[in-house]
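Researcher: I'm preparing a figure for a lab meeting and need a structural model of a single chain. I don't have an experimental structure, so a prediction will have to do for now. The sequence is pasted below. Please return the structure as tokens so I can convert it later.
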Amino acid sequence: MRRMWPEEFNSILSGAEEVTLTLPAVIHEDGSRSEAISRQALKIRIPMEDYERIWPLAEARYRLGGKFAGKAITLITTNPHYHAWHPADGGSVENTSDSGRHYTTNYIVAHFLLDDVRETAAA
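Model: Understood. Here is the structure written out token by token.
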């Protein structure tokens, strides 16, 4: 099934940074060994309210348009293989509204796995 990333959340990806996630090789209990894996990802730092809005989209794959056309993303939230890149505290920023009231904006750092999904067409 081809799900497109909801356009209402495009602003969340506007400041995304492309990074490489590296999983080290693992020696299993039976003595077998898995190779190290590198995966492309998008790293975002967003307000907690925005993260709560995209939470229902977690662990599902969505195709992208715009500058990421031909790519698909999957929000990492609970996958044990990517534990180091689960959502984490992104700090907070103290602000003052136009009316002079002080408020705090809490941020979350999250990662999306980034996959190439371009389809080749027969010539």
